[in-house]
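Blinded run. Sample ID left blank on purpose so nobody reads anything into the name before looking at the predicted structure. Input follows.
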Amino acid sequence: MSMIGVGLIGYGLGGRVFHAPFVSATDGLELRAVVSRDPAKVHADIPGVPVVPDVATLLARPDIDLVVVSSPDAFHAEHALAAIGAGKHVLVDKPFATSLADARQVAAAGERAGVQLTIFQNRRWDADFLTLRRLIAEGQLGEIVHFESHFDRWRPDPAKVWKEAREGGSWFDLGPHLVDQALCLFGRPDAVTADIATLRDDAPAPDWFHVLLHYPRRRVILHSSKLAADHGLRFAVHGTGGSWIKHGLDTQEPAILAGADLAGADFGLDPRPGMLTTGDPAAPRPVDNARGDYAQFWRALASALSGDGPNPVPASEALEVIEILDAALRSAGQGRTVAL
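Blinded prediction complete.
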């Protein structure tokens, strides 16, 4: 495999936790430059990497094959289009645009240019989600009829950061993860009914959502609140063969923040098993989790860029996520169910 030169736009949480460490740990990828206004912050983690002051300087470098867009959401489409225009392959953080029109424009530009456009939907490789996919594939839950996916937090005081004020609020922050997972499991719904609200004092954008995806014989609930002191519930899944209830979030992000070795024996392990109930409702039993594996995404990306495998998250799949996000905003704003 020839080495793929990577340029990273942005060194906030996404750049320093979800991108730079995995680029460095993935065979075939090499981080060659970072766009940041704070070189000292970058060099504290990656001493030798060049830090450039702007996107144009990064795109002018001939040794950059893949551009990772990890800038604030409002710049995702602009930076992706610039990278595509420079003939680079592009990986964009979710959401890959803040409007459906911009998402379609980016996807069309990537297709015309013949470059690979990939969207970073990393929570497909969470330990709990991989476990759920295995249980469904094995038929242990039967036909899923009721599915709840929660991403709650206890943050009663809004922080004065751009993420709290992002367009779409928490629906465009956490919603892309929950929507993408639902689409992976069940495909496109028939309709969306959404309630999206701002419940905290002085919150600059929505911080609560409850979104219902309608399927012919299934209901999918996507829920998040930043005023949930008890925020342990992650999944509640009920099928014709049983139920699976999971508390606790995937451990990979906090482990990286704590300085864990990505190759460590414990990395990706979620010690809190979900509880599976089949037959007798009085006898739930714990189910060991699969190992969370964000590195699998990066290995797949490197293989795809080398022509040895498919794009792990193509723009066509991410565009469906944006369509659901957009439909939910219209549903909440108009107080009605929106057909797809």
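Unblinding after everyone has recorded impressions. The radius of gyration is 20 Å.
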